[in-house]
Each structure stands twice: as C-alpha cells, then as structure tokens.
Amino acid sequence: MKKILAIALVCVLCIGLLAGCGKKANDKVITVAASPTPHAEILKVAADVLAKDGWTLKVTEYADYVVPNNVVEDGEIDANYFQHQPYLDTFNAENGTHLVSVAAIHYEPFGIYAGTKSAIADLSDGDKIAIPNDGSNRARALLLLEAQGIIKLKDGVGMEATVLDIAENSLNLTIVEMEAAQIAGVRDSVALAVINGNYALNAGLNAGKDAIATEDPGSVSATTYANILVVKEGNEATPKTEALKKALLSQEVKDYINNTYSGAVVPIF
C-alpha cells in the first residue's frame, strides 16, 4: 500500500512539474492576429528582435477586419496589428468591445488607383468609383476624393463623412461602397478605386509608385490613420505587451519598413 501511495505521489509531482513547465513556456509566447501584408511581414522582423530576449512570437493571419478584434477581446490572442485608431473606436462602439491601442507603428497612404480610367481627368458623367464601406475608411476615401477635386463634401463633416454628405458631384459619379478587401479585385468594373494601403500591397500595388493620387502627408487623414498595436483593456502593461511594443518600435523594424515598401508603408516612430 505504501509503495502504491509513493508511486501516486511521484506521479502527482511529475504532473505538477510538467504543468509548471508548460505555464512557464507559455509565459514566453506572444500571440498576435494580423493582416498578411504588411503587418505579418513586419511582425517577422519583430519576432527576430523578440527572440534575442527569449520570446517566441506566433502570428495568425486574417484577411478581414473583424475576427482579429474578436479573438483579442475573447482572450484567444494576446494582441492584434492591422488597424488604425478611428476603425478601432468605431469597432468598440458598435460591438461593445474593450480594445485599446498601445503603440502607433506605421502609416499606409490611402490611394486612388486606375480602373477603367487611367487618370482623374478622364472621368466622365456617370462613372463609378469604388470606396470602402466601413465608417472610418469610407470617410477617409471621401476626403481623398474631395482633396483631388472629384467631389465636394459638406463643411465640417471631416472623419464622419458619408456619401450623404456629398454636396457637389458635377459628374454625377456613382460612389460604390464595398468591403475594403474586395476593391482591388473589381477595378475592371469601376472607373477608379480607392484602396487601403495593405490591400493595395496584397494586390501587387504600391501607393508610392502605382496610385494616381495619395493622401498628403500633412492631411488630417494621414496624421490620424496610423496603424496601431492593440490589446484588450487591462493588458496595456503586461510583460508580453511591453516586449512586443518594444520590438515593433525597434530600429530593426524601422529599417525594414523603409527598405522594403518604397513609400507604400511609412514608419511613424
């Protein structure tokens, strides 16, 4: 009987040790949800920086703008890196989530790209222009169209602009709203397309080289729409968050962005 008890005690101790080792291992693993381009690419460089301090970075890529926030809110993933502050604010308000920004990493110039028309001057009566259909990116697209003289918005609408706020549309253009991820793929059916920087990159387009027009670096849009590192409220100062933030704000990441994207992605730190 004593022998059986001794064996049982040893088993319990072994299980405890294994559980403790597993917990310690997990304490050095950081999980991040990200868009494939450029976020996941940038995170690969951050992973190398983190590895020097004993951290392991695991990145899960998502092609949409909803799931990456949900998995962080649910605690399934530690952080995400794919969005800007206006989108996060809208998402929190509409979904009751509790997500916060802990660092601004880069800016992706929003661009107008050729569809069936190769220049803004070629637009004709009734042409279609595709823009994102989510609140913050919709406003950003409309402000860019206004800056190029394509439409005029009501005074003061700013980042709250919708198509209902178009005050002047001399060419009777049709503004087609759709999921941001789909716009690059429908350029052959619209005159022009206004595309987010990361989705442009996914489609082989570069705002610095291929866009007909991009946001002015000093515009409200450009200064507002930095891509941010996001965690659930309460996790702003955890060791994982601090380590990931430090890695993404490193000189290695800054150099990688500058040397890789030719102006399509711009570090802001």
Entry keywords:
269 residues; alpha/beta; D-Maltodextrin-Binding Protein, domain 2
CATH class category label of the largest domain: Alpha Beta
- The percentage of residues in β strands lies in 15-25%
Mean pLDDT across the residues is 90
Order of helices and strands: HEHEHEHEEEHEEEEHEHEHHE
CATH superfamily of the largest domain: Periplasmic binding protein-like II
Number of strands: 13
Principal-axis shape equals elongated
Are there runs of 5+ residues with pLDDT below 50, and where?
Answer: 5-15
Main beta sheet, described?
6 strands, mixed
Secondary-structure content class = alpha/beta
First and last CA, distance: 67 Å
Radius of gyration: 23 Å
> What is the total domain count?
2
- If helices are DSSP runs of H or I spanning 4 or more residues, what is the number of helices? 9
> Which sequence of strands runs across the widest sheet?
2-1-3-12-4-13
CATH architecture of the largest domain: 3-Layer(aba) Sandwich
Percent helix, as a range, is: 25-40%
